[in-house]
From TrEMBL:
The keyword rRNA-binding appears for this protein: no
Keywords, ordered alphabetically: Acyltransferase, Membrane, Repeat, Transferase, Transmembrane, Transmembrane helix
Catalyzed reactions: L-serine + acetyl-CoA = O-acetyl-L-serine + CoA
Protein name per the record: Serine acetyltransferase
Gene Ontology molecular functions: serine O-acetyltransferase activity
EC number: 2.3.1.30
InterPro entries: Hexapep_transf_CS (IPR018357), LbH_SAT (IPR045304), Ser_O-AcTrfase (IPR005881), Trimer_LpxA-like_sf (IPR011004)
GO cellular component, one term: cytoplasm
GO biological process: cysteine biosynthetic process from serine
Amino acid sequence: MFRNELMESVGLIALIKEDFNNHRRDWTLPGFRALAIYRYGTWARTRRFYLARAFFSIIYIFLNRFVRNIYGIEIYHTAKIGRRLHIGHQGCIVIHQYATIGDDCVVRQGVTLGIAGIERGETGSEHAPILGDRVDIGVGAVIIGRVNIGDDVNIGPNAVVLTDVRANMTVMAPPPRMMSRMTLARPNIDDEKLNLEK
């Protein structure tokens, strides 16, 4: 039987109510729906009796596939997600099955929390990211491997995090390069023919 300490101590209904309030009390938001189904899946896998666990888990599997395929939000019931996670928008959000997320975090579209690499055999829980409390992750950010992100960390858009980050830090992607819009002269085909003939 699968165990989840948060589910045991707080309960399914209380956790879903918190997530609902944290998503502007709008049950139609994909982020809230994804979290509610995650919470339900965690609850389903913690049922003591096998038949009840199997019945509720089958429902969870269909709901989870719906969220993954329609909203592009992939969360497994085995991930450890704290209270009041806010998922802003939808699309290309992947939270690895062994990732750990603290309380009051924010995840935006295009975020990936993943393992370092299957080809290196780094697939277990010891290779997944661990996020502290109040971590704010910008659009398109990628956190890969066994990295520890401290409390109150801001991770900027499109940042790639491969190392630990201390608490109260901000991680930014490299600054963009400025390039002039001058157009290069296109080569003249007749000139190219002359060069070839020479």
